[in-house]
């Protein structure tokens, strides 16, 4: 039997000042995680939730909460966000037959136990030998080595054009940033950049090399960064990372 509440007892919604706005992307510098800001007429406080299916984090706010307040709220939960992201299982594992982008070009992992020689790229495939249980590690080791070669070579070449010196290039699996530059000239990059299209990898190198001269994000920095980035400029690679960064974190 369906019971209906007497009309008087039905919760009367307080009319909102204006209807909720459609969800929109919220940019937080230093976080490669797409964040979506969603206004909800029913929300009474701000909440953060991970949408694993869409590979993003949603911040839900009551109607009328300012973007500044939402940003501060997300900032206060920075540690939580990073921990949640790190705990998300890689949903695109390196197994035989799986696809993996190499410099943005899709390749298929082909495992053949009889394969001789090192893991390598050939004819649109990533060829791996050895035991099946070692395939994921071998693919990752290969991509990390390729990333190191690409990133270090480009970093030294770009640095030379502005008379700067790269002290060291380190490859890491950072969840929070694609690259960094220390005051002593040590550059660090995520191995996952080798998965991104070439102009994206190139831009991140240009960005960190530009920091060897300008330890800030001033207009002078961005002009130098653009001069160190080939072809596409900085806008397209930045937009690409914002839109696709999270996906890169799910490989492996
Ligand atoms: Zn920077």
TrEMBL record:
> What range(s) does the YgjP-like metallopeptidase domain occupy?
45-232
Query: What CDD domains does the record tag this protein with?
Result: M48_yhfN_like
User: According to the lineage, what is the superkingdom?
Assistant: Bacteria
Q: Where is this region: Disordered?
A: 1-25
State one Pfam family annotation.
YgjP-like
Protein name from the UniProt record = M48 family metallopeptidase
Q: Which organism is it from?
A: Azospirillum lipoferum
């Amino acid at each position: 039997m369906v019971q209906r509440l007497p009309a008087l007892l039905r919760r009367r919604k307080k009319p909102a000042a204006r209807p909720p706005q459609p969800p929109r992307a919220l940019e937080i510098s230093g976080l490669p995680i797409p964040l979506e800001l969603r206004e909800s007429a029913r929300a009474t406080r701000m909440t953060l939730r991970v949408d694993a299916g869409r590979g993003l984090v949603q911040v839900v706010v009551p109607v009328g909460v300012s973007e500044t307040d939402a940003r501060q709220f997300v900032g206060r939960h920075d540690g939580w966000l990073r921990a949640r992201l790190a705990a998300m299982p890689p949903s695109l594992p390196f197994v035989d037959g799986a696809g993996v982008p190499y410099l943005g070009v899709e390749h298929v992992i082909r495992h053949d136990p009889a394969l001789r020689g090192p893991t390598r790229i050939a004819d649109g495939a990533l060829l791996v030998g050895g035991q099946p249980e070692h395939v994921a590690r071998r693919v990752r080791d290969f991509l990390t080595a390729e990333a190191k070669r690409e990133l270090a070579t480009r970093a030294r070449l770009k640095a030379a054009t502005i008379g700067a010196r790269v002290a060291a290039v380190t490859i890491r699996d950072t969840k929070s940033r694609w690259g960094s530059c220390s005051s002593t000239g040590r550059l660090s990059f995520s191995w996952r950049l080798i998965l991104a299209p070439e102009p994206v990898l190139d831009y991140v190198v240009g960005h960190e090399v530009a920091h060897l001269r300008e330890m800030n994000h001033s207009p002078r920095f961005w002009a130098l960064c653009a001069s160190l980035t080939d072809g596409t400029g900085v806008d397209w690679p930045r937009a690409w990372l914002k839109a696709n960064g999270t996906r890169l974190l799910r490989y492996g």
